[in-house]
Amino acid sequence: MIYSQPQPTMTPFKPNSGDFSHAMRREIYEQPQAIAKTIEQHLRDDILFPGELHALESALLSFEKLIIAASGSSRHAGLAGEIMIEDLSGVAVDVEYASEYCYRSTHAAVEPIVMVITQSGETADTVAAQREALTRGVKTIAVSNVAEATIPREASAALITGAGPELAVPATKSFTTQVTVVYLMALFLARKRGRMTSEVTRSYLQKLLRLPDAIETHLRIWDELAEQFAEKHFRAEKFLYLGRGVHYAIAREGALKLKETSYAHAEGYPAGELKHGPNALVDEKLPVVVLATYDQHDPDSVLRYQRTLEVMKEVKSRRGQIVTVATEGDKEVEGIADDVFFVPSAPELLLPIVEVIPLQLFAYHVATKKGYNVDHPRNLVKAVVTE
Q1: Across the chain, where does the E strand assignment appear?
Q2: Which of 43, 69, 210, 280 is most buried as measured by Cβ atoms within 10 A of its Cβ?
């Protein structure tokens, strides 16, 4: 059965601490405000990062590559950022696991800038990665949710997210605000390198500024659908998440959220890789979560979407159960998927900020139906301060 999402007509929900039994769910609902605050912090009179990157001014004119080092959800924000920055600015980006960065012998004869992404600002592997970069004479940019933490204090420049305190161990609002910052960085570099005029940059920013209201309008509907879908699937022992292009990062993040909170095995793959191994898992017991959003004004996005539909049909032919995140008004997806979250239309590179939120809610409800403590999953801590 498909649960089709109605057009939102309800008054946006303004949560307070008494409305929720778990910090994770409250923090999911706080994301519109957190994203809006993050934009406000880094945008003044159409100027991005006013004064915040002054210490890197000369390096920003000459660097050849951006290396992103991060762990966990922060690395998934980096994976989304890789495509955003490369597509908009033309700057080459490599994304490293922070825990592996120190063991890479060289920067392959390039002059990079290293961006480290961290919620707490104290992640041991990321601290070590940044210190190694600084030892190599490389400038660093820290993206952190905590301004006074070690990583932003030691960085060449720090960009602080507007998430505010995040009490639940699974990252939700810290993740979407990190993605917001790296999107702003993509616009900043595109403008600085002459790839984008001020008028075009302004149009991109206007679309970003509209996202918080669009998210807030849909939150309660996504929450209700997530609970319905979770009721169908919470007994499953394994899940597969699929996405193409920038949406692959969100497939990875959605799988991690489910894994962290519900202890089910979940993996995120590029949708085109299904036939290269994961297809062996597909049967009537396997929920396959597919990111099938698209930007109708972007031909490349439309092509990726069409190929994703073919993958969904393949899953369906093998009796897999399909949970999909799709763009409002998409009738083709409704004819294939079993369960659909509809999200508002947005440019291709902004869709990750929107589409991850239904997946956060889905993970939350799967875990709570299993009776687990989503705020404090077993064996996990909020800040990994030992290597």
Answers
A1: 43-44, 47-48, 65-70, 92-97, 112-118, 140-144, 157-160, 238-243, 265-270, 287-292, 321-327, 339-343
A2: 69
Beta-strand relationship, 47-48 and 43-44: antiparallel
Find tokens 């898992």 and name the residue.
Answer: 281
Instruction: Round to whole Å and give the CA distance between 140 and 115.
Output: 6
Contacts 24+ apart (CB under 8 A), 205-209: 205/39, 205/43, 205/46, 207/346, 207/347, 207/350, 208/39, 208/180, 208/183, 208/184, 208/350, 209/36, 209/39
Distance between CA atoms of 98 and 127, rounded to whole angstroms?
Answer: 9
Which of 227, 222, 231 shows the shortest CA–CA distance to 325? 222
CA distance 280 to 197: 48
- Contacts with 107 (C-beta within 8 Å, 6 or more apart), sequence order: 65, 67, 136, 138
Is residue 282 helix, strand or coil? coil
Question: In sequence order, what DSSP letters do the residues of 63-124 get, joined into one string?
Answer: --EEEEEE-HHHHHHHHHHHHHHHHHH--EEEEEEHHHHTT----TT--EEEEEEESSS--H
**pTM over the 0.90 mark:** yes
What's the DSSP call for residue 343?
E
